[in-house]
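Entry type: protein chain
Record version: 2
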Amino acid sequence: MHDSEQLTLTIPSVAKVLGISRGLAYSLAKRDELPVKVIRLGERRMVVSKQAIEKLLQEDTQKGNENDGAS
């Protein structure tokens, strides 16, 4: 890992990665309904582990590939 490598994503960045609106991402994060753990820093700052998002998307892709083979 490099010192400049970012380990977390902001909620707007998570929204972009997941393909949802910024408002929806904030709403889900505030209600603890994002499919990954939200890290709260102080009263307002929320971030998500970049690794957790990558794992979530990998698992979803693998599930999709398994379902594609079933007829």
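Comment: The chain is about 50% helix and 15% strand.
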